[in-house]
């Protein structure tokens, strides 16, 4: 089976090889060229911050002096010596579970209504969409004012109706549900997304279901739901990620409801009442930009990142029921 | 193709790792070699925002510029400590040369980090003897471990404001001096409506109420927060249990935590006309000396007076003491005009005429020995109470610490829980609080 190649036959194959390599190189350059906007964005806004966060989680760094390696000290501090980490994590997870679930359910409900209303559709849709346009701080200020136990109109109206109103943002048991109410009020974003999804369900499937004698529930279960699950999936995943970063509304509500003055000399202590509105992102900010404890802030950020990744991975599995074989 | 891509990724990750290690923004180092007689523009950040306060600081700057025609000052008001901290760390081109803070809490952080420069060399250079100019307790709260990175720019003393008409109606002859008298009078002054809600409360004890933070109330017990090694010693502090019991007793005697919280959360903004002492909803009120100016301006419909806050029953000799704090001023380490900046700091803090004029304008306690004795100081009787509190040898400010006011935040959290009724296992919880404060301190150390 010995083979021999004559020099006369090798020349063209070497030439072809070179030409092929040139073609491959050009293709690689072209591919990288097309990929480069994404590569630059990914590197600058994701990879670098992530690597820097991991790096600083093992460093003592007060944003003034050079970082020094401290091993696992920041990790031990967060997990063993920071009493606020537990409540902040529990609150964040509570908000992720309750707020995301209720927003999705409410969003589908309002979306269904908006697609079925016969008259005044524009008014109905505007009414539900407008609150979403309100800036989060302004919306929260308004909510805290409306729900103020002493002077708020909501409690006064409930009182006139003989209903004993809760202390809303001033009660540790009611502060988070009050934030959920605020989240449901600004449901406009999900309403629009679900409306689009619902209008996209083929009409003939509804007609077929009606001919088969399916009731409203069965129609929703076997026609609507399978069609909108990718959108539900999208709403849940983006909702989880957004709620993991929940910061402004909780901070503003806590600060306003506490009535504690925050002058130029003082620092806002988040979490009022009794740390019930304290979230992990608030702790990250306090540690990183008020106490300049960069290492511990990075540890918390990584914990958040890991949880968000785990929840998203779990939801993306087909077994979660939100993705079908075709998806 | 795949292995080329992998190579690119590997190289990228390595580069990013290097970048992560080196990409820390260290602020530029300033200079103390500038000639303060040369023309220069200084940036000065301060926290004042009220109209009369801003006018007073602008007038102070005008007086300075008249004395130093070569130095122009560009002032920025309503700056928080958070902004100062972040700006000086970022070290941008527009960072301030001279910085001030409304709180003494962060002096330890400013000194230990080197963010505010040590002022002793400047004082030596210009022949300013700080011990002759400034009272000792004010010098103490502007230094950390011997480094004087700040100087007092007026001080604040805390005392009791009381409604004289309400006192007369309740048959109370003079403001309370001990905590027992305080509690008795507060209950006596409280009036309720037919439905049981408060019409007027003798005193709002809850720690979240405006200026009532635990450290301000605890100052009446003269606490020592740290031992010589810098470790928290609240569990060993003799007065802590009495302080907490007194607070809880006040809360209970005045109607309970929930009822008081409900009343408190209905109050308006602290610096508005809706202030509950001004509107007669409170008969006694803990506040700083500046409140008098607001009361004068509001022309409240009752006679009012001032007195030191009561002291523990077993320490009557300390009556007259109070909590001290104040505005502090320093020079940013990143300033390239540190000598010129020092001229401004020196003028604002140690020029007697300037200190007196500024103190009178914003109703703050002057911060130099000469200014405290000045006959030109506001002769208002209510204001004089606070001057006496500031001079009282038992008056104190919380000590500076490495991580700013973090220990006070932990103490505050503890206080919130205790006053609300979380009173079990006090000894154990105080030890745990000490551990927490120490852990936070260690975490801030390099």
Automatic annotation (TrEMBL), chain A:
Q: Where is the ABC transmembrane type-1 domain?
A: 89-315
Question: Disordered: where is this region?
Answer: 1-22
Q: Which SUPFAM superfamilies match?
A: MetI-like
Keyword Transmembrane helix tagged = yes
Q: What is the lineage of its organism?
A: Bacteria, Bacillati, Actinomycetota, Actinomycetes, Kitasatosporales
Which spans does this entry mark as compositional bias, Low complexity? 1-13
Its name, as the record gives it, is Sugar ABC transporter permease
- Give Gene Ontology CC terms: plasma membrane
Q: Where is the major localization of this protein? A: membrane
Family statement: Belongs to the binding-protein-dependent transport system permease family.
**GO BP terms:** transmembrane transport
Topology term for the membrane:
Multi-pass membrane protein
Where is this protein localized, as stated in its record? Cell membrane
List membrane-spanning regions.
31-58, 92-115, 127-147, 179-201, 222-241, 294-316
- Its domain of life reads Bacteria
Alphabetical UniProt keywords:
Cell membrane, Membrane, Transmembrane, Transmembrane helix, Transport
């Amino acid at each position: 089976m010995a083979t021999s190649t004559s020099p006369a036959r090798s020349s063209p194959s070497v030439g072809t090889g070179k030409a092929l390599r040139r073609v491959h190189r050009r293709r690689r350059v072209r591919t990288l060229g097309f990929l480069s906007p994404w590569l630059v964005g990914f590197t600058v806004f994701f990879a670098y911050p992530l690597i820097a966060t991991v790096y600083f989680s093992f460093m003592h760094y007060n944003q003034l002096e050079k970082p020094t390696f401290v091993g696992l000290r920041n990790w031990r501090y967060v997990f063993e010596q920071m009493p606020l980490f537990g409540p902040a994590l529990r609150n964040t997870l509570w908000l992720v579970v309750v707020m995301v679930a209720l927003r999705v359910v409410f969003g589908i409900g309002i979306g269904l209504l908006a697609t079925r209303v016969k008259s005044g559709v524009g008014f109905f849709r505007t009414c539900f969409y407008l609150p979403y346009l309100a800036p989060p701080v302004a919306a929260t200020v308004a909510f805290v004012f409306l729900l103020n136990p002493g002077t708020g109109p909501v409690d006064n109206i409930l009182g006139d109706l003989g209903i004993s109103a809760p202390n809303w943002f001033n009660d540790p048991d009611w502060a988070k549900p009050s934030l959920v109410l605020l989240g449901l009020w600004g449901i406009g974003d999900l309403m629009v997304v679900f409306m689009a999804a619902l209008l996209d369900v083929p009409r003939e499937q509804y007609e077929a279901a009606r001919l088969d004698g399916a009731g409203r529930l069965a129609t929703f279960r076997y026609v609507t739901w399978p069609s909108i699950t990718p959108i539900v999936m999208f709403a849940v995943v983006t909702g989880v990620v957004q709620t993991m970063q929940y910061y402004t509304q909780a901070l503003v509500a806590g600060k306003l409801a506490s009535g504690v003055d925050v002058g130029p000399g003082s620092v806002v202590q988040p979490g009022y009442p009794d740390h019930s509105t304290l979230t992990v992102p608030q702790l990250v900010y306090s540690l990183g930009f008020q106490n300049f404890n960069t290492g511990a802030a990075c540890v918390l950020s990584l914990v958040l990142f890991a949880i968000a990744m785990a929840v998203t991975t779990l939801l993306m599995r087909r077994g979660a029921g939100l993705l079908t074989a075709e998806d | 193709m795949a292995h080329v891509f992998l190579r690119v990724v590997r190289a990228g990750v390595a580069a990013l790792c290097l970048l992560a290690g080196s990409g820390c923004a260290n602020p530029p180092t300033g200079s103390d070699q500038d000639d303060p007689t040369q023309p220069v523009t200084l940036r000065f950040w301060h926290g004042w925002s009220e109209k009369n306060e801003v006018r007073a600081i602008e007038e102070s700057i005008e007086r300075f510029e008249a004395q130093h025609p070569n130095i122009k000052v560009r002032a920025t008001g309503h700056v928080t400590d958070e902004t100062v901290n972040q700006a000086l760390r970022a070290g941008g081109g527009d960072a301030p040369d001279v910085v001030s803070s409304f709180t003494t809490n962060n002096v330890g952080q400013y000194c230990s980090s080197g963010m505010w420069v040590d002022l002793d060399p400047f004082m030596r250079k210009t022949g300013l003897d700080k011990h002759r100019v400034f009272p000792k307790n004010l010098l103490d709260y502007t230094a950390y471990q011997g480094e004087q990175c700040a100087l007092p720019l007026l001080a604040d003393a805390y005392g009791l404001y009381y409604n004289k008409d309400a006192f007369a109606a309740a048959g109370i002859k003079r403001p309370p001096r001990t905590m027992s008298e305080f509690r008795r009078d507060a209950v006596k002054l409280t009036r309720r409506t037919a439905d049981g809600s408060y019409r007027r409360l003798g005193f709002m004890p809850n720690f979240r109420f405006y200026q009532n933070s635990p450290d301000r109330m605890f100052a009446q017990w003269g606490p020592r927060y740290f031992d010589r090694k810098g470790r928290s010693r609240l569990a060993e502090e003799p007065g802590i249990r009495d302080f907490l019991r007194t607070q809880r007793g006040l809360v209970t005697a005045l109607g309970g935590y929930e009822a008081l919280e409900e009343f408190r959360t209905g109050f308006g903004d602290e610096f508005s006309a809706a202030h509950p002492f001004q509107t007669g909803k409170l008969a006694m009120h803990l506040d700083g000396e500046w409140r008098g100016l607001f009361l004068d301006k509001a022309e409240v419909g009752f006679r009012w007076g001032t007195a030191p806050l009561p002291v523990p029953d077993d320490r009557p000799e300390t009556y007259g003491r109070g909590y001290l704090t104040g505005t502090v001023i320093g020079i940013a380490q990143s300033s390239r005009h540190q000598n010129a900046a020092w001229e401004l700091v020196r003028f604002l803090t140690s020029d007697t005429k300037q200190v007196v004029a500024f103190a009178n304008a914003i109703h703050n306690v002057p911060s130099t020995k000469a200014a405290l004795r000045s006959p030109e100081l506001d002769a208002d009787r209510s204001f004089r109470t606070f001057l006496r509190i500031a001079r009282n040898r038992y008056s104190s400010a919380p000590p500076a610490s490495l991580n700013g006011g973090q220990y006070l935040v932990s103490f505050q959290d503890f206080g919130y829980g205790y006053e609300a009724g979380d009173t079990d296992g006090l000894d154990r919880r105080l030890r745990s609080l000490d551990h927490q404060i120490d852990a936070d301190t260690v975490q801030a150390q390099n």
